[in-house]
Each structure stands twice: as structure tokens, then as C-alpha cells.
Amino acid sequence: MEPMAKGEIKRDIKRDLVAACAQPIVLAILGRGESYGYAILQEVRRASQEKLTWTDGMLYPVLRRMEERELVRSRWDKAESGRERRYYRITPAGRRELEKERQQWTTVHTTLGRLWNALPSSS
Amino acid sequence: MDDRAHDAGKTVERAAEFELEPALAKWRAGFTALSGAELDELADHLREEFARLVALGLAPDESWWLAQRRLGANEGLEREFAKVTVHRPLFALVLGYLAVALSLRVLESLVGIGLVVSLRLGQPTTATMVAAVIAGVLLASVVLARLLPRVAVDLPRWALRSPRIALGLLLAGYVFGVPGLYMGEGSMVTLLTYEHILAYMWSRNVIEIALVVATCALAWFVGRRTPRRAALA
């Protein structure tokens, strides 16, 4: 992967949409197992093929908010480097929220899919 | 040596001189409102991103610049954290108290100054003095109640951004409020009995506690109704 040049900001998806999907994405990643901030962002980059890019630091207030709502829990533990690292895991309430989000996003996706399929072909 | 070779030489020199830990310490010093744990977590992120970019072949100083840029500006991060932190129950309690206590101290000191002025002008009785103090505190509370929504939401948020300044102001408010009680000869201390001062303190504390509870309840209520979507991009 080529590093981003100075001054270049990649922004493929609208800001509001990125913000709206932050919580379900984080829940989906943590739904697969415990993780930490940097690894979550890398996972988002990989899964979206670099199309969904966040200002990295903004993930952390999102995690804090989710913790406040008891959707995730965090704990500090030693990382491989020997330094302390904050790890997050999903709570039962978080799993219920994930399921709710999944249903809602599936509805949106299905609706848009049907409507777009009904559009006349542009070619 | 031509210019390009000279520039390349300077770049290599600059990269060799770069040290991550002092750069991280300098970066941390740029924050005023984040907790140690929050900064530790962000620093852990920066270390990882820095290591990844260096592994990709970027010079250490460029990697650090880019990692910092991707993490986001200090002000933006503090603003986003403040939106969350201020609504934590414990923080809301402490900061709500800070906000109300600060406002009360300022208003109380005005009452104190009024009393001292009235003492200089005449010789009121103890009963009228007590009534004046209670009436003054109640009046201050009424004024404060009108300002409560702003006090409950904006002041804690502002205090979170600059806790040192807020604490300094609170201290100044206390010091400023004291002269009303301890002005020496002919002041309330000599005119009021110990029981009267206790009664005054009791009435003040009851009002203050009630206002703290009201402030926290309002902060919690406003917090629940405020859209909490973070600006991720």
C-alpha cells in the first residue's frame, strides 16, 4: 500500500454516513473478539478496502461513548511490546444492539438495492 | 555538492536525529483536557501507526508527522472527548458542583459586599442581618436558576477543557466571597452569633446541594437529548 502524500486526505464516503455507521462497524468487529483501537481501525480499512477512512483519533470518543452506554467494556493489559494497552470487548447489551443495527442496516440495504435495480440502466 | 544532494543529506540527518519518545512527550503536553488514560491510549495508537509507516519506508520524522495528522488535531480530539466525558455521571456530578459552586461564590460575594456596605451605613439588628443574608442567598439562587441551563451544560464543558482555569476561578470565588464574613471591626462576625452564622451556612449549603442536584439532573437530561454522533471524518 502506498502511503498517503502530505496534504492529501482520502474521503470517499460522506462524513454523515461514516459517522452513522461507526457504531455498527465497531460492534461488528468486537463481535468477533476482543480488540483495541488501532487494530479496529486497521480492520475497518481492510474490510472497506481503504474506502472508509476516519480521522483516527475520532474512534476513541466513539469507543468511550459506547462504553458509557455499556455496549462495550474495556480493560488495560500488557501488549506484546510490554506497554499497557486498552482492550475492548462487546457486552451482552452490545450484542443485542449489534443485532438491532444489523436488521436496520439490512432493511436500508435491501430497500436501496430494490430501488436501484428498478432504475434504467445508464449504459 | 549540488542542491539535491545537500537536501538529501539534510533529510537523512533529520531522520537520524528523530526520537519518538521526546516527540510523544511534546505531543502530550499539547493537550489540556484529556485524562492520562486517554492520552496513554492515543499515544499507543501513535506508536503503532508510526511503526507501520516506518516499516513502509517513510523517514521517521515524516512517519511521525503523518501519524499525528491521521490521529487528528488536538482541539478536535478534546472537543469530541469533552462531548462524551461531560455526560459521565461522576464527571457531571463533579463538574456540575464546580459550576454551581463557582456561580454561588461569585453571587455570594456580591451579597457579602452589600452587607458590608450596609454595615458601614448604619447599625442593623441581628434579625435584619440574618434576614438580609438569607434573602440575598435566595435572590442569588433565583438568578442562578434562570442561568441554570447554561451553567449546567456550557460551564462544565468549558471547565473540562480548562480545568486549571476553572479551579483557579473557583478558588478566587471562595477568596472573594470571604470578605463579606471577615471584614473585621463592625462586620457580621462581630454582630452575628455563632448560631446565626451556622444558620446562614446551613441555608447556603441546603440551597447549594439542591442546586447541584438540579444541575446534575438537568445535565443528565440535556445529555440524553443531545445528538451524540461523533464527527469521525
Task: Please specify the SSE layout and strand pairing.
The complex is a heterodimer of chains A (123) and B (233).
Chain A: H1 15-30, E1 35-36, H2 37-47, H3 59-68, E2 72-78, E3 84-90, H4 92-117
Antiparallel strand pairs in A: 1-3, 2-3
Chain B: H1 3-17, H2 20-29, H3 36-55, H4 60-71, H5 74-85, H6 89-121, H7 126-161, H8 163-177, H9 188-191, H10 194-225
Helix pairs in contact in B: 3-4, 6-7, 6-8, 6-10, 7-8, 7-10
**Helix count from the secondary structure assignment of chain B:** 10
From the alpha carbons, calculate the radius of gyration of chain B and give it in angstroms: 27 Å
Total beta strand runs of chain B: 0
Compressed to H and E, one letter per element, the order of chain A equals HEHHEEH
Pick out the low-confidence regions of chain A: 1-10
Largest sheet of chain A at a glance? 3 strands, antiparallel
Q: Spell the H/E element sequence of chain B.
A: HHHHHHHHHH
Supply the number of helical segments of chain A.
4
User: Helix coverage percent of residues of chain B?
Assistant: over 70%
Mean pLDDT across all amino acids of chain A: 86
Give unreliable regions of chain B as ranges.
176-194, 225-231
Overall mean pLDDT score of chain B?
A: 66
Strands of chain A, count: 3
**Structural class, from helix and strand content of chain A?**
alpha+beta
Beta-strand proportion of chain A: 5-15%
Major sheet description of chain B: none
Give the chain pair forming the largest contact, with residue counts: A-B, 34 and 34 residues
Strand order of the largest sheet of chain A: 1-3-2
